[in-house]
């Protein structure tokens, strides 16, 4: 019923199949009766929708949506910006563990401006900036109507592209640094995938706390420039995988203490390199598997080093009554952005050019920065 409410009672030009599929899913084969709207309705909207799971570049399309009723506890938000995350792509493909059933509107995080509010809403006013927190399905549309509890008010003193992207990757970095062991200034961590958005956030948040960070990246052209950029963000050491093909990687540490915590988003040999750096009793947290290769751990790592392997999934963390805590963490991260202590690469793309942004996010045009749609 929630999707029908977002879509309205009929879809725009070229979207008859989307409407008919919504009708079948929600109403079965019975004729659809048109419900009269109250006087409080949203403006018409545009949205990126998909009717079936599949390759995002073939199953998504931009359609027009009619006005949506604004109930007394609802807030109508004019979306300002929303990113295209890998998890968004996986949801459309149908391979992400938690996903809305199609037909659905794409997108999971973003930032918007309050357009209007229901009669019972007192905490938000038109003009406020808000983000869905926890993140909420359907951010790739120009206007969204949802209950006031969905929205978290934020200050307007940060660039909208940062507000739009603060909830998933930076929050993942922060939670992993704080959820597994107690790190103090002077301690060290090690991670692979250091050029990823999460990796860059880990470097900067660690530096802000006086925590040393050792970073592993894949061998590539222009690696010296890559290393220099990471060191400017606050990386203590950056090694390519080939540089770590030595018997004792810890001999490379110098004055940096052995890391007690490691992060893995690659898997395969890259994960094994993270494990090599860890000290006795250390912990490796896996939050991704970009290489699509399994993690192989030696028996001695368990018996003689007593290493622990853990996993992190932000969506699971946020579904364990963490909404209030996560909002405090988001405000803290936005404070780092405001102070110039948290930066990462993004490319802003107008909503009308969504298909181009999607191609870039899919890697069709080579390595690209995070694509952020501006509405």
UniProtKB/TrEMBL annotation:
<dbReference type="GO" id="GO:0006633">
    <property type="term" value="P:fatty acid biosynthetic process"/>
</dbReference>
<keyword id="KW-0496">Mitochondrion</keyword>
<dbReference type="InterPro" id="IPR011032">
    <property type="entry name" value="GroES-like_sf"/>
</dbReference>
<dbReference type="Pfam" id="PF00107">
    <property type="entry name" value="ADH_zinc_N"/>
</dbReference>
<dbReference type="InterPro" id="IPR020843">
    <property type="entry name" value="ER"/>
</dbReference>
<dbReference type="InterPro" id="IPR013154">
    <property type="entry name" value="ADH-like_N"/>
</dbReference>
<keyword id="KW-0443">Lipid metabolism</keyword>
<dbReference type="InterPro" id="IPR051034">
    <property type="entry name" value="Mito_Enoyl-ACP_Reductase"/>
</dbReference>
<keyword id="KW-0444">Lipid biosynthesis</keyword>
<keyword id="KW-0521">NADP</keyword>
<dbReference type="InterPro" id="IPR036291">
    <property type="entry name" value="NAD(P)-bd_dom_sf"/>
</dbReference>
<dbReference type="Pfam" id="PF08240">
    <property type="entry name" value="ADH_N"/>
</dbReference>
<keyword id="KW-0809">Transit peptide</keyword>
<protein>
    <recommendedName>
        <fullName>Enoyl-[acyl-carrier-protein] reductase, mitochondrial</fullName>
        <ecNumber>1.3.1.104</ecNumber>
    </recommendedName>
</protein>
<comment type="similarity">
    <text>Belongs to the zinc-containing alcohol dehydrogenase family. Quinone oxidoreductase subfamily.</text>
</comment>
<keyword id="KW-0276">Fatty acid metabolism</keyword>
<dbReference type="InterPro" id="IPR013149">
    <property type="entry name" value="ADH-like_C"/>
</dbReference>
<keyword id="KW-0275">Fatty acid biosynthesis</keyword>
<keyword id="KW-0560">Oxidoreductase</keyword>
<feature type="domain" description="Enoyl reductase (ER)">
    <location>
        <begin position="54"/>
        <end position="373"/>
    </location>
</feature>
<dbReference type="GO" id="GO:0005739">
    <property type="term" value="C:mitochondrion"/>
</dbReference>
<dbReference type="GO" id="GO:0141148">
    <property type="term" value="F:enoyl-[acyl-carrier-protein] reductase (NADPH) activity"/>
</dbReference>
